[in-house]
Hints:
Elements: H1 2-22, H2 33-55, H3 73-98, H4 107-111, H5 117-151, H6 153-166, H7 177-194, H8 198-215, H9 221-232
Helix pairs in contact: 1-2, 2-5, 3-7, 3-8, 5-6, 5-8, 5-9, 6-7, 7-8, 8-9
Amino acid sequence: xxxxxxxxxxxxxxxxxxxxxxxxxxxxxxxxASTIVxxxxxxxxxxxxxxxxxxxxSAVPRATDFGLRLKHRWRAVGWTAAVWFVFFVxxxxxxxALGLDEAEKNIREELGTESGTFxxxxxxxxxxxxxxxxxxxxxxxxxxxxxxxxxxxxxxAILTGVVFGAIHIGSAEPEYLAPLAxxxxxxxxxxxxxxxxxPCVALHAxxxxxxxxxxxxxxxxxxxxxxxxxxxx
Length: 233
């Protein structure tokens, strides 16, 4: 219910954003980067709102119910590094086996990063901060937690991974949807190993920062973005 409600409302919201932009000359069939960015920010906000709203159906939720706690900091750092390494290896093997280019969809055109400093900062904040927070609170903090309470870790993690990969249809190349689904599964595993959502948000932010920087052919800006995104999150 939460999944369909959140994305249903997000679709309606994106439609209104598009209509509003069209009133000022934007093209509904080919929306501008600013319209896409605004719609995606709205979707990430709704992921958080929807998580808390549906959690309230059974009881008033606490931050700890979503995994917003951290007891063993260095152990969490170690598991985060290990999970990220595993994901790198899997992605590298997948790309080599299919003969894929490392470059994904053109970030410059999709998010308007060449439209000026403000456009670049808005896109960077969306990809490296808003998306990790919104998606992790919903998919690991609420969706995975609910399913794991119902049928245990494996069905919950696998289904969450599949859905996580599926929602990136349109924003990622089709060949990379499977690695994204695996990433969603590994984030569930990281949650289980650490008992906290914070490592998941941090890893998501790090991975998105790397992908964002590579897509823009950055060099020293990539580690700077990584540190900044995790700090802000």
